[in-house]
Structure formats: structure tokens, C-alpha cells
Amino acid sequence: MNRLKAYLELIRYPLFAIPIVATLPGAFIASEGHLTWRVAAALIIALCGYFAGMIKNDYFHREADALTNPERPLPSQRLTPRQALVPASVLYGLCVIGGFWLNVKAGFLVMGLVAISHLYNAIFKARGILGSLTLPLGIGLLSVFGALAVSGAVPRLVWYAFAATTLYDLGTHITTTFKDISRDKRLGVTTTPLQLGIHPALLLSAVATVLAFAIAFLPYWLEPIQQKFYVVWVILGIIATFATRVPLYRQPNEKNGYFALKGSMVGSILFFPCLVGAQVSIVVSTAIIIPLLLVTLFLLKTTRQEV
């Protein structure tokens, strides 16, 4: 049981909804709103790949965690580095196999996503703006993967989801780094605010986030969609994001950075799958989004695990 608990800490299971909501737009749009076995397979592959990335993150940064987060599974020696590396590599391998099982295009994209995850964790995470660009690209490409996994093609509406998700996650990644900015500066870890400066980084985050919301509104005017109530989710995402990022912009400190992170998680669950609502009714999209949001909030509150 202790080992199981340690693995659950490694994968940061309260964040399980993020790869799901990032993959859903592509999968549901490509399936025309039907929950098929291919949609389910795409979500499982995305979830396993996300968990593998979380494990690799702790594997590559275990020395820094020994100084700043000694209670984590690897620094506390509840798990050995090998016990983290092997399962993560196996999960990556299974994801690639699963991708090719669905179709060749999906398989090659999974390989690319694994490479992006590995590069981010091993190299780019501590390289400032490169890290802030790399991880959001991987998150955004999950919607493209979802479409390829289901149909082998990428409908035009999915590209809106890709662009909006990538830009929103870029803004989120930058604000997230503020929660550990003092520690990162002390350890010599280069994050975007430390590389560009606090105010330029916040400006870049704001521009990326505004562009993400603007792109999400475009299908309302430019595409022949029937379910225009999807904009409700965009608006709710704006409210959640704005309300929790204003304190960070007024006072850029670690406390407000962590508050912005929590708000971005809520905003992501509301916003990432918003274009699913362009394919299905508001009742169906509500039945998908709200349970994911409530379960995430419950897990974060009950586990008190740092994210």
C-alpha cells in the first residue's frame, strides 16, 4: 500500500482531467459527438502518457526535489529511481503501441508527443521560454491526436481547439512558475519570469490567454455549427481565469502564483473541451465537463497534494 501511495503521488492523480479535456475536442469532433471505443482508447492513451510524463518529471528532477521537496517519493526513498523510470518507460511504450494500433498517423503523433514530454522533462523545463512553449505544444496536440485516433483525419474545427488550448496552456505555464519563483532563483533554475523579467512574462501570459479565448470564439462566427451555446464554456473559462489571475498581476508573488495555478486548472477543465459543445448539446457537454471539474476539486481538497 505504501508503494501504491507513492506511485499515486508520482502521477499526481488529482490532475487526471487535464489530458482528458485536452483530448476530448479532437476525439468528439471527429466522432461527430458519439462515444465510440476509439474515443475511449484515445482518452486512455492520453491519460497514460500524461501520467508517464509526471513520473519522468520527478525522475529527472529528483536531485532538486531532495533540497526543496524531500517528502516526495524519490527523495524520501519510498521509491528508487529505477522504480520510477521503468514504469514510466513502459507506459510510454504502451502508448506508442496503442497509437499505432489505432492507425499509423496516430502512432507517429504519439511518438512525437512522447519526444516532446521527454525533452521538456529532461531539458527544456529549466530553459525558460523554451519550457513554456514546449509543454503547451504537447497539450495542444492532444486534440489533434484525439481526431487522428478516431478518424485518421483532423477536421478544421479541431485546429481551433489545438490553437486555443496551446495558447491557453502557454499563459498558464508562465503563471504557474510564479509559485516557486524564489526557490527556482535560489537553485539557479531558469523559468520564463526569471529569463524575461516578471512584467514581460506576465504580459506574454496575458496576450497568449486573450488570444486563446479569441480563437475559441471564432467558430461561432466563421463555422457552420449548430450548437452555438458552446460559448457558455468559453465565458466560464474567462471568468475562472480572470478572477484568479488578477491578484498575481497586482502582486506577483508565490501565494498568488499558486492561486492562479488553481484557477487555471478550473479554467482548463471548463475551456479545453469547450468546442465539444459545438458538436453536442449543452446538456451533453455539461454532463461531460461538470463531473470532471467536481471530481478534480474534490481530489485536490481531500488529498492536499501539491500540484
Describe this structure in words.
The radius of gyration is 19 Å and the shape is globular. The protein is 77% helix and 0% strand. The two termini are 22 Å apart. Helix 2 runs antiparallel to helix 8 (156-176), helix 3 (37-60) packs parallel to helix 6 (104-122) and helix 8 (156-176) packs antiparallel against helix 11. The mean pLDDT is 93. The protein has a single domain (2-303), classed as Farnesyl Diphosphate Synthase (Orthogonal Bundle). The protein has helices at residues 2-11, 17-30, 37-60, 62-68, 81-102, 104-122, 129-151, 156-176, 181-187, 192-196, 198-222, 231-250, 254-271, 282-303. It is an all-alpha fold and 307 residues long. It contains 14 helices and no strands.
Report strand %: under 5%
CATH topology, by name, is Farnesyl Diphosphate Synthase
Poorly predicted regions are none
Spatial separation of the terminal alpha carbons = 22 Å
Biggest sheet layout? none
Extended strand count:
0
Radius of gyration, whole Å: 19 Å
The number of helices is: 14
Task: Please identify the top-level CATH class.
Answer: Mainly Alpha
Briefly note the structural class of the backbone: mainly alpha
Oligomer: single chain
Topology overview:
Blueprint: H1 2-11, H2 17-30, H3 37-60, H4 62-68, H5 81-102, H6 104-122, H7 129-151, H8 156-176, H9 181-187, H10 192-196, H11 198-222, H12 231-250, H13 254-271, H14 282-303
Helix pairs in contact: 2-3, 2-7, 2-8, 2-13, 3-5, 3-6, 3-7, 5-6, 6-7, 7-8, 8-11, 8-13, 11-12, 12-13
Looking at this protein, list some descriptive labels.
77% helix; single chain; 307 residues; mainly alpha; 14 helices; Farnesyl Diphosphate Synthase
